[in-house]
Amino acid sequence: MTFLRACTVLVSLAAIALATPGFAGADPTATVVAGRQRIKVTVSGYPDPGQCLVDPDSERHTQSVAVGPSGSVVAHNIEPGRSHVLVWCPNGGVIYRGYVDVLPANPLLDLSDLLVANGSSGRVTDPTLQ
Question: What are the DSSP E strand ranges found in 1-130?
Fold first, then answer.
């Protein structure tokens, strides 16, 4: 009976370890959204996303921005057009490398987003503000 109980405990612990994101071995990923002169990056699957860095415009103006502890960061003042984005995390390496199309600034729509949203990010026109 003791051997059977020990095997049951080991199998249960293995199942818990595989179901826990820290143990499951899931690779970290990043979601990148472009808006009006902004790029929003959200890192998931990394134990401490605050250690990750984003280069929102690596081919024109390389400048790294730290991801916040929440796992998200919005980089501002990105030139309109095609932007090459890199996201790097320690011990994870480059977890995202891709292009997004940054829109030109539109102060009227930005003002509208501030006035209309009124606490509801689902009604804004710029996806980086959602």
Answer: 29-34, 38-44, 53-55, 65-66, 72-76, 81-89, 93-102
